[in-house]
Amino acid sequence: MPSSEPVSRLINVPGIGVDRMGNAADAAGDPEILRLENLDTDIPPPDIAIEVTRNAIGDDVNNSYLPFLGQEALRKAATNHVSQVSGINYDWQTQSLISAGGLSGILNCLLAILEVGDEVIVTDPTYAGLINRVRIAGGVTKFVPLIPSTDGWRLDVDALKQSVSAKTKALLIMSPSMPTGHVLNMDEWQAIANVAKQADCWLIYDAAMESIVYDNRKIIHPASLPEMADRTITVGAASKELRMIGWRVGWVVGPKAIMNNISLVSMSNVVCQVGIAMPGVTAALTTEDNGIEAAVVTLEKRRNILLDEMQGLPVIPPHGGWSMLLNTVKLGFTPAEASQLLFKHAKIAATPMSGWGENAEDYLRFVFSNEPESRLVGMGAKVRKALRL
Q1: Domain with 30 in it: what CATH number?
Q2: Residue 207 DSSP code
Q3: Confidence (pTM)
Q4: Residue 318 has what DSSP assignment?
Q5: Are the beta carbons of 188 and 155 closer than 8 angstroms?
Q6: Are the CB atoms for 324 and 311 separated by under 8 Å?
Q7: CA distance 89 to 7
Q8: Does residue 150 contact residue 319 with C-beta atoms inside 8 Å?
Q9: pLDDT tens string 258-269
Q10: Closest listed residue to residue 183, CA positions, set 285, 307, 317, 304
Q11: For residues 97 and 238, what is the distance between their CA atoms, to the nearest angstrom?
Q12: Are residues 89 and 199 in the same domain?
């Protein structure tokens, strides 16, 4: 019988934990359980996106392998979106492609630029799915800490500078970041740009939550920094900002010099995108009001409720995104222990951050995108009671 032992590229690729907590909550079948374990959202997609998608199902042009790099209208819309945010005039024909979701696009980028053993700098904590994709592509993750405080997270710039080596091939940076909600400020982006230029490497910018920023923060696109347009690859997605998770549509926009290689991987990997989903995403990107601003207002209110509820506990305020971390070790519990206690005694589903970075092991994540404000009120008392604080 053939060996079932994991191949080398999978040895250091754990699960992400979300599936286990989600399965447990589903199996319980209890509507009172607060679903804070996964990145779903109850904020609906744009109406126009749903309407156009329904119509797209019956159009035979959407039931096709072609075009391999995505429908022209969507490539134009995605390219225009990135151009507007970054201030860089990208050409949709030579500098963009559509992927089957943002993470598929990120994997395609990594496969296009990494040799086995090349190093990729990521923040810590960071989304396990990003870490795992670096490893599946044959890369080695180099973790740079995010420093927690009562005011939020900040990038350890000194550690960032020290992380560079002769093997550095890319930085893989998400802002706002998962699971921390860390939003890079200008000084931090400049430090990242300096490292990218020093190492002469690529910057893969995961822009999935780019617009979900709080406290009147401004969006900073790294390609807008001096000398960064030629080394920044932007990967966006419809899942978070547009709330179109099930559509599985993303986009990659970057320098012409690397896009041919990414396109080759894309065609060899997933072959094509979800045809019936692309028109809806096009509509969402081109409509006058796609609901992003209203969604951010709602999410910020939910964040504020959680911060009020958890006041006095070791939570780090997120500056963006839709998740928040609690340091359970400071309360005397491993994140796994705290997760079980909260699930059993407080009907709260929350995911331990094991595998989400070297410094992530102390944290439990609460996602606030899928529960209305009314259900978040009183959560602090439930947490304290379940953990006997």
Answers
A1: 3.90.1150.10
A2: -
A3: 0.97
A4: -
A5: yes
A6: no
A7: 42
A8: no
A9: 999 999 999 999
A10: 317
A11: 14
A12: yes
